[in-house]
């Protein structure tokens, strides 16, 4: 790969994860162009010194690397192959990194289309959250040709603390991410149920958090999400709608494989209920608010107490 300042990277999707990745690359000296439908996100990135573009095709002109950090497979297809898609505008022999959670067969389809267009494709779903994205400490669950991973290693080292190369075929990385999302969704739902259950028993929620995070019942999601409940802050770091999508993928794959996913399916319904209550775009810890509403409980809020979303 060229030196950072000579390497043109287009990051499509400046949400909580994509913005952090773009910021990390910019900090390391890469020539980064950001693309997003959110004007405020574009302005924030431009204020850091990054370039911005109105659409993926413009942003990817002669790009060496396009990183698609959008919500799902349909958005990935649109930004890569749509009427103003990035792939057709890239430099010859460029690389596409696809970071959205999706079913493995969609990742394989995108890989084939990129190869047909003369570009290399890496199936690289990510995990770690907005803070780790901003500090360049994500986990990448990747699959694709090893020589392509080697070619963009400086970029990967910039955005991730751990990069797992899980096979030569696209779709393997996506499958690993689906397993991760099964666990993540279940753990968030369980954490929200636990902290609301504690409220129903009249416990001091701050003390519950202190005790559980030092005990065997703790999980990364309990430790990360319960503070949102304690602070009454449901601004979306990761939205409820993300897990209605991701656990829906788990359910679809389970049906196809004739493999039961009863715990994940229950968690899915908890996220669906939360979205149906009008909190789909709020933080995924809003599952606690949904349960509190059902039980008639008051949870902490930034300005007092709240019992409904």
From TrEMBL:
<dbReference type="InterPro" id="IPR050006">
    <property type="entry name" value="LtnD"/>
</dbReference>
<dbReference type="InterPro" id="IPR013328">
    <property type="entry name" value="6PGD_dom2"/>
</dbReference>
<keyword id="KW-0119">Carbohydrate metabolism</keyword>
<dbReference type="InterPro" id="IPR002204">
    <property type="entry name" value="3-OH-isobutyrate_DH-rel_CS"/>
</dbReference>
<dbReference type="InterPro" id="IPR008927">
    <property type="entry name" value="6-PGluconate_DH-like_C_sf"/>
</dbReference>
<keyword id="KW-0560">Oxidoreductase</keyword>
<dbReference type="InterPro" id="IPR015815">
    <property type="entry name" value="HIBADH-related"/>
</dbReference>
<dbReference type="InterPro" id="IPR029154">
    <property type="entry name" value="HIBADH-like_NADP-bd"/>
</dbReference>
<dbReference type="Pfam" id="PF03446">
    <property type="entry name" value="NAD_binding_2"/>
</dbReference>
<feature type="domain" description="3-hydroxyisobutyrate dehydrogenase-like NAD-binding">
    <location>
        <begin position="171"/>
        <end position="291"/>
    </location>
</feature>
<keyword id="KW-0520">NAD</keyword>
<dbReference type="InterPro" id="IPR036291">
    <property type="entry name" value="NAD(P)-bd_dom_sf"/>
</dbReference>
<dbReference type="InterPro" id="IPR006115">
    <property type="entry name" value="6PGDH_NADP-bd"/>
</dbReference>
<dbReference type="GO" id="GO:0016491">
    <property type="term" value="F:oxidoreductase activity"/>
</dbReference>
<comment type="similarity">
    <text>Belongs to the HIBADH-related family. L-threonate dehydrogenase subfamily.</text>
</comment>
<keyword id="KW-0521">NADP</keyword>
<feature type="domain" description="6-phosphogluconate dehydrogenase NADP-binding">
    <location>
        <begin position="8"/>
        <end position="167"/>
    </location>
</feature>
<protein>
    <recommendedName>
        <fullName>L-threonate dehydrogenase</fullName>
        <ecNumber>1.1.1.411</ecNumber>
    </recommendedName>
</protein>
<comment type="function">
    <text>Catalyzes oxidation of L-threonate to 2-oxo-tetronate. Can use either NAD(+) or NADP(+) as cosubstrate, with a preference for NAD(+).</text>
</comment>
<dbReference type="Pfam" id="PF14833">
    <property type="entry name" value="NAD_binding_11"/>
</dbReference>
